Amino acid sequence: MDLMTALRQRRSIRRYQERPIPEETLKTLLDAAKTAPSAGNLRSRKFLVVTNPQIMKALGLAAYSQPQFSKAAALVVICADVPRSSARYGDRGSLFAIQDADAACMCLLLAAHALGLGACWNGAFDDALVRDLLSLEKGVLPVAIISLGWPDQQPADPGGSQEEAVSWIT
Hints:
Elements: H1 3-9, H2 23-34, E1 45-50, H3 53-62, H4 68-71, E2 74-81, H5 82-89, H6 93-114, E3 118-122, H7 127-134, E4 140-149
Helix pairs in contact: 2-6, 3-7, 5-6
């Protein structure tokens, strides 16, 4: 699948088949996420792969009971390592760490789509609860929880205008 096709066809998948994802496939997704650009090549991000059903259920509750968590085969929590980035960039380090994590999210989502998996970027969750559940060290911020599984839906193209707020300054 070429990149432009993947970009146009990728959708947020929230319904999954009851089928596990092989560990090697999860490792491939993480390898893809690690290819994302990173400020100063510091890689100020962390990945936590969750397949434990009890922890997945607790994360689902922390994510305001979003239904896709209950059927996902795995969750990947992508975190910004603010202290790592701030050690070099000071106050801007928090922004750069979040950008590092966000770029990794997109690479993971595209890789999942290319491998035939469904994925959904989840950003609505209780930060403090997620930090506690995963015992994250101080300054490591959960940025996204990606739910993953074999798709049990094929969302249509949302249609409508793809126009964004774009200005050309020449």
